[in-house]
Every structure is written in structure tokens, then in C-alpha cells.
Design brief:
Alpha-Beta Plaits; four-stranded antiparallel β-sheet
């Protein structure tokens, strides 16, 4: 039997204002190896909560690079 443990990590990202922003973050973070899903709780005018479900722990550096590539700012390493 295989281990199906899913790791849930949360990050705060600033600069997102619309559904296109959410799609950009989702696309970039989803490209990281091991990521199973990405969801964003958009908070216009504040930091949005990005939830990453993965099969392996994500590194802050990997998440930060994906967020920067999408054009946004990672505010916290992990909630």
C-alpha cells in the first residue's frame, strides 16, 4: 500500500486583485514538483491566503520563486 499523506501549507501573498491574479499564482505554484493543488483566498487590498496541498514538503525558496515569477510578493514563509 502506498502512503497517500497530503501536506497542507499556507502562505500570504500581496498584490493580487482579481481572478487573473489568482490564475497566475495557481499556474506558477502548480508547476512545482510534488504540488497536487493550489487554492487562493483572494483578499483585495490585503494579503491573500494561498493554500498548497502537496505530496512532499514545499521549500520556502520554491514557493517564493513561483510567486515572484507570477509577479507578486510572498509576505510570510508559512502560516
Amino acid at each position: 500500500m502506498t502512503d497517500t499523506t497530503v501536506i497542507e501549507q499556507h502562505y500570504l501573498v500581496e498584490g493580487m486583485t482579481c481572478s487573473h491574479c489568482v490564475a497566475s499564482i495557481t499556474e506558477e505554484v502548480s508547476e512545482i514538483a510534488g504540488v497536487e493543488s493550489v487554492s487562493v483566498d483572494l483578499r483585495v487590498g490585503g494579503a491573500s491566503d494561498v493554500t498548497v496541498l502537496s505530496s512532499v514538503p514545499m521549500t520556502v525558496e520554491g514557493i517564493r520563486a513561483a510567486v515572484i515569477e507570477a509577479g507578486y510578493v510572498l509576505v510570510t514563509d508559512q502560516l
